[in-house]
């Protein structure tokens, strides 16, 4: 279990982590979400004792990281930044780590087999591709068969096969009763991987809850409607108490570039009711698709107040949802 | 990808290695630091170069000197070599070899930062003083062995070649001390370079500073007014430290060989203290 209590970190004037408290329970994958610069990596580095907190504390299984006797046997971490000497072979990297923990050298070879790096075990790590480097990082994290795992953007730059590998690995580890905290930019990745979410913005906790609950808290169900008469339909929807936002080009119903009818994103009305309204006014519909609220919606809604660089808030909500879902 | 086997196999490993005791724990750290040191090819090459270049240059210069003995305009040089053969033997070779050590010591720690492996190191060993201590002990011992090899190699190569013109033997006054001392000096210089590397954490800056300490500080101090400039000069790290491998006392020398070496060691310990303090305090 990871416990973060009133944790703060300042870099000069910049508050990167701001009185943050949350716990990460064993036996499930906990997703750590937040916009760029929210403080995810900093929080992980504080938990791991690499950075010193300005206030508060973080413990792993009740102890500070620096107090763990053989830390790699308790905690495995995959950091965002590179942490391998480019001139050292993969095997020697794992070997020296194993030696610090009193693990036998054969453990390094087992891990290389497990992540599929056996053939390049004695090659310089500097020549590794992004995916190979990530696999070496995973091997280092799992070297001591730790109970607790912290993975900072583990799927960054991986191909679909690698993404799937990491996803299954995390689920497997959680199923073994381990504590897994994983940060990511890919919200839909988290929706299928994480059982629990900790969402932060500007270093502050926004929500810590089960993934379904976070999704449910997000904006309600939306419906995607394609019609050649968006103006009339919008009027009807508004009189019924709904809201319709032109989704494609944002200027109120001009034809979409590809010649298809424009798209409206409707909230506040269910798809059957929209269909009935359109039929009663003899408006032709080309598409009527209920959209499940996604983690993206929930995430954008939750973090729109606290976006570090404020770009997404400048767009109509519907548009940013569209872009992120795609 | 079979995770099950991977976890299962470790159980036996985990029971076999229990909690590290003090000495056993430090032994592990030293084993790891030794792996780190020997597994970077550039470090190994630099160390080999240090040994070969230093001994090789000493032998080459000795040979050139002997083969041009009493050559045109060689009289003053011949007199100097005859008067202080140890100064000649340990002059150019160690003068060049020490630069290799400066670079190596700095690189030992700054490459941990530039490649990011410091993060892996500190995750494995979050107690930072023991990590630094293990690194220093392993590097120091290796340096001591290589530096004594270089010192005695240089002495024997140089004295054998000079033999036909100047007789030097280890049993001469101060010669054994100077030869051992050359190894001590190079070893401590390596540790000083590690300390500077740990303080600045940046390769180019670290190398510049250490080379500055060794080559430039004495020149700058030489520009000071002579009354107190000489005092400052005597206590500078390189000036004081190099007394240990000199046999001949220069006139007006303020420190004895061992005093000078002591001053050099004090400088190194001070820099190490700063390095350890900063390593512990700073974010990695
Ligand atoms: N060493 C540092 N010195 C100064 N500022 C820093 C440092 N590390 C992080 N920051 C700042 O702290 C804030 C949080 O950074 P952090 O890397 O933790 O965010 P993040 O959530 O991991 O972002 P991303 O999703 O882009 O990885 C950022 O504004 C960043 O610029
Ligand atoms: Mg980050």
Structural description of this entry:
The complex is a heterodimer of chains A (326) and B (284). Chain A has helices at residues 40-47, 90-100, 106-114, 130-142, 160-175, 187-193, 211-217, 230-239, 271-280, 295-303, 317-325, and strands spanning 2-11, 14-24, 28-33, 55-60, 75-78, 148-152, 179-183, 196-201, 204-210, 222-226, 243-246, 263-267, 287-291. Chain A is an alpha/beta fold and 326 residues long. Chain A has two domains: 2-210, P-loop containing nucleotide triphosphate hydrolases (Rossmann fold, 3-Layer(aba) Sandwich); 219-325, Alpha-Beta Plaits. In chain A, α2 crosses α3. The two termini of chain A are 35 Å apart. Chain B contains 13 helices and no strands. The longest helix of chain B is centred in the middle third of the chain and has 35 residues, at 128-162. Chain B is an all-alpha fold and 284 residues long. Helices cover 79% and strands 0% of the residues of chain B. Chain B has one domain. At the A-B interface, α2, α3 and α5 of A face α1, α2, α6 and α7 of B. The complex binds adenosine-5'-triphosphate and magnesium ion. Adenosine-5'-triphosphate binds at residues 11, 14, 16, 34, 36-42, 80 of chain A.
């Amino acid at each position: 279990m990871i416990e973060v209590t009133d944790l703060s970190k300042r870099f000069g004037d910049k508050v990167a982590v701001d009185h943050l408290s949350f716990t990460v329970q064993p036996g499930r994958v906990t997703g750590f979400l937040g916009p760029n610069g929210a403080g995810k990596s900093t929080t992980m580095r504080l938990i791991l004792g690499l950075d010193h907190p300005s206030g508060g504390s973080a413990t792993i299984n009740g102890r500070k990281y620096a107090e763990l006797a053989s830390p790699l046997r308790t905690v495995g971490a995959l950091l965002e930044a590179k942490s391998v000497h480019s001139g050292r072979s993969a095997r020697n990297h794992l070997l020296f780590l194993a030696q610090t923990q009193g693990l036998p050298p054969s453990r390094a070879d087992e891990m290389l087999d497990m992540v599929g790096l056996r053939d390049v075990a004695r090659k310089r790590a500097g020549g590794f591709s992004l995916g190979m480097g990530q696999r070496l990082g995973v091997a280092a994290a799992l070297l001591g068969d730790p109970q607790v795992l912290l993975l900072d953007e583990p799927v960054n730059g991986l191909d679909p096969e690698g993404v799937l590998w990491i996803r299954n690995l995390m689920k497997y580890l959680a199923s073994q009763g381990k504590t897994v905290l994983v940060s990511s930019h890919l919200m839909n990745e988290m929706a299928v991987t994480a059982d629990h979410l900790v969402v932060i913005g500007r270093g502050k906790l926004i929500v810590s809850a089960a993934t379904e609950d976070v999704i449910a808290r997000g904006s309600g169900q939306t419906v995607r409607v394609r019609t050649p008469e968006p103006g009339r339909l919008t009027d009807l929807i508004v009189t019924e108490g709904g809201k319709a936002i032109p989704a494609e080009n944002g200027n109120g119903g001009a034809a979409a570039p590809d010649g298809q009818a424009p798209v409206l994103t409707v909230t506040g009305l269910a798809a059957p009711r929209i269909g009935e309204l359109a039929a009663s006014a003899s408006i032709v519909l080309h598409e009527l698709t209920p959209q499940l609220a996604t983690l993206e919606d929930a995430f954008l809604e939750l973090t729109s107040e606290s976006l570090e660089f404020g770009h997404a808030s400048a767009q109509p909500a519907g548009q940013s949802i569209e872009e992120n879902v795609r | 990808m079979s995770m099950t086997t991977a976890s299962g196999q470790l159980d036996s490993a985990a029971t076999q290695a229990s909690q590290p005791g003090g000495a056993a724990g430090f032994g592990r750290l030293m084993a790891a630091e030794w792996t780190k040191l020997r597994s970077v090819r550039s470090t190994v090459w630099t160390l080999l170069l240090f040994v070969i270049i230093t001994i090789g240059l000493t032998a080459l210069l000795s040979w050139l000197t002997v083969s041009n003995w009493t050559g045109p305009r060689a009289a003053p040089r011949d007199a100097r070599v005859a008067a202080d053969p140890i100064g000649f033997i340990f002059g150019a070779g160690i003068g060049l070899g020490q630069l290799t050590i400066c670079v190596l010591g700095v690189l030992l720690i700054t490459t941990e930062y530039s490649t990011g492996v410091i993060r892996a190191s500190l995750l494995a060993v979050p107690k930072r003083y023991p990590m630094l201590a293990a690194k220093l002990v392993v590097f120091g011992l290796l340096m001591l062995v290589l530096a004594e090899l270089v010192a005695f190699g240089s002495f024997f190569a140089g004295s054998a070649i000079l033999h036909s013109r100047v007789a030097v033997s280890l049993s001469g006054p101060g010669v054994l001390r100077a030869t051992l001392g050359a190894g001590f000096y190079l070893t401590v210089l390596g540790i000083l370079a590690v300390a500077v590397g740990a303080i600045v954490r940046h390769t180019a800056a670290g190398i510049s500073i250490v080379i500055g300490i060794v080559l430039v500080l004495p020149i700058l101090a030489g520009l000071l007014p002579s009354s107190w400039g000489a005092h400052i000069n005597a206590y500078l790290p390189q000036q004081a430290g190099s007394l240990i491998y000199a046999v001949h006392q220069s006139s007006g020398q303020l420190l004895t060989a061992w005093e000078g070496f002591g001053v050099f060691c004090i400088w190194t310990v001070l820099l190490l203290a700063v390095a350890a303090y900063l390593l512990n305090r700073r974010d990695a």
